[in-house]
Specification:
This protein is α+β, with helices and mostly antiparallel strands. The chain folds into two domains: about 1-60, no CATH class; about 75-190, no CATH class. The mean pLDDT is about 75. It has four helices and ten strands, in the order H-H-H-E-H-E-E-E-E-E-E-E-E-E. The strands form two sheets. Strands 1, 2, 4, 5, 6, 7, 9 and 10 form an eight-stranded antiparallel beta sheet that branches. It has a two-stranded antiparallel sheet with strand order 3-8. It has helices spanning about 1-25, 50-55, 55-60, 85-90, and strands at about 75-80, 100-105, 110, 115-120, 125-130, 135-140, 155, 165, 170-175, 180-190.
Amino acid sequence: MHSLLALAAPLALMLPLVAETARLPAEGDEGEGGAPQCDAAGAPGVAPVAEVLNPLGAMRQSSAAQQIRIEQRVVVRITPAPLAARQNLLAELPQRPSAPRFEERRKEKCVGLGEIAGVQTGSGNRLVLFLRDRRMLSVNLEKACRARDFYSGFYVEKSKDGRLCVSRDKLQSRTGARCEVEVMRQLVAVPG
């Protein structure tokens, strides 16, 4: 049944074209009484009804070029790490009576989006990224941005290399704020 439909579909598309050529008189043909056929306004020729009914004929006569552009966009969502996961990341550090202290050490240029396990807001315009390899990164946003806008995570448009980079990528909060990443540093626990 499908093969019959596949054969009939092209023929159905050709029918308006065949019908149009059959309706048009050949050059030199005249209607009854030797006079050329006239339309309702009295002008010689065939009424343009076939052009309106035939989309193939209208497409052939159209001189405007059409262009279609297809774009694809991938957006990645990073959510805050669950409290249990954050405690597990800190569980491997030696237990001390005081809270662990962290220092910003090495500057990072980029980090893979797949490596990010979660995010937590810091003070001012600073976010803390928790990575799957148990590292933590401090991310400074533009001066006009506030970290508290990113309390429920952020969205970032995935680039070709699949990385989040300084001075290139912008983070978008769920509330609509868009902020560029200015500085990214690794956080290292220091004895206190």
